[in-house]
Specification:
Blueprint: E1 7-11, E2 14-18, E3 25-26, E4 40-48, E5 52-60, E6 68-74, E7 79-84, H1 101-106, E8 109-117, E9 120-131, E10 139-146, E11 152-161, E12 167-174, E13 178-183, E14 186-192, E15 195-197, H2 205-216, E16 220-224, E17 237-242, H3 251-257, E18 262-263, H4 273-285, H5 290-295
Parallel strand pairs: 14-17
Antiparallel strand pairs: 1-2, 3-11, 4-10, 5-9, 5-11, 6-7, 6-10, 8-9, 12-13, 12-16, 13-14, 15-18, 16-17
Helix pairs in contact: 3-4
Length: 296
């Protein structure tokens, strides 16, 4: 596997960090005459929640239906076995994967890397995508386990992923500048494009937050990005629609129109800038929210 590139790499769009100078974990095998290696490697740290795990692996010098397996250990003490089957998730690293590509795809696996070594052209490493049956649980670690004493099992990397759904439910507000939205297994902080919000010291702040909660909490929303998705403070910014993606359902606009926040946080996004600016002007003229308080 000497041709495999080290460091941060992407294989079929999946990012992995390949360690250097020792780039793989290899397990003990009678077939590979490496009985000095460990039979199992346990406790590979994860310490994150994940909807998916990606295993970058291969094997050499052996056959059999189950060359190796994984055990995913959760923080609550439970675990789940992840069996790996020859021909479905992985092949011998010298085998031609072409006849098995369809079967691999049906089992959420694919060719991740092909390279050469001094003895062979076309050494192959595979990637298997595993769907976590308990994404709400934190994954503490992964165990890499031998099943038989035949093949040399090879693990080059593990990567994780979280689904990024666009629809969710608002669980709370962030002052008057954004919302906390349950997106799948994640609670995401979404800050409104075009809304600067109010400082907590503002005399209208508590009233504005109360009205904002009544407007947003419990609503099913759709998150819609513009060109810039992160502001200078590193916060995710977007348009948030409560209901169909009609401009009248945009919470960003409703906050401005009700005078619950000031204009700002555009960060170069211009799709709805004129509309929000007009709403801000009308709110000041009609003495809505903070503008009514300032006139007293």
């Amino acid at each position: 596997m000497r041709a495999m590139p080290a460091g941060l790499q992407k294989f079929a769009g999946v990012p992995f960090f390949i360690a250097t100078p020792k780039g793989v974990v290899a397990l003990q095998s009678g077939g590979g005459d490496n009985m000095n290696l460990p039979r199992d490697v346990k406790g590979i740290a994860v310490d994150h929640k994940a909807d998916l795990l990606y295993f970058l692996h291969s094997f050499a010098y052996g056959a059999g239906e189950h060359p190796f397996q994984y055990r995913v250990n959760y923080a609550d003490g439970t675990s789940v076995e992840v069996p790996i089957r020859t021909g479905c998730h992985v092949l011998d690293w010298w085998a031609d994967p072409t006849p098995s590509l369809e079967t691999l795809a049906l089992n959420n696996s694919f060719v991740a890397f092909r390279g050469d070594n001094p003895m062979r052209k076309g050494v192959t490493v595979y990637c298997t995508e595993w769907s976590n049956p308990s994404p709400e649980k934190e994954i503490r670690s992964v165990d890499f386990l031998s099943v038989s004493n035949g093949p040399v099992a090879l693990l080059a990397g593990i990567s994780g992923a979280m689904f990024q759904p666009a629809e969710g439910v608002v669980e709370d507000v962030i002052g008057t500048e954004g919302v906390k939205v349950r997106l799948g297994t994640q609670l995401a902080d979404i800050y409104y494009i075009g809304v600067a919000g109010l400082p907590s010291t503002h005399p209208y702040y508590e009233t504005a937050v109360r009205e904002h909660k009544a407007m947003a909490v419990g609503k099913k929303v759709t998150i819609n990005n513009d060109v810039v998705t992160q502001n200078a403070a590193g916060r995710r910014i977007a348009y948030v629609f409560a209901g169909p993606m009609d401009i009248q359902n945009m919470l960003n606009a409703q906050v401005i129109a009700a005078g619950l926040g000031t204009l700002g946080n555009f960060e170069g996004n211009n799709r709805h800038r004129d509309y929000l600016n007009n709403l801000g002007f009308i709110a000041t003229q009609n003495k809505k929210g903070i503008w009514a308080a300032e006139k007293k």
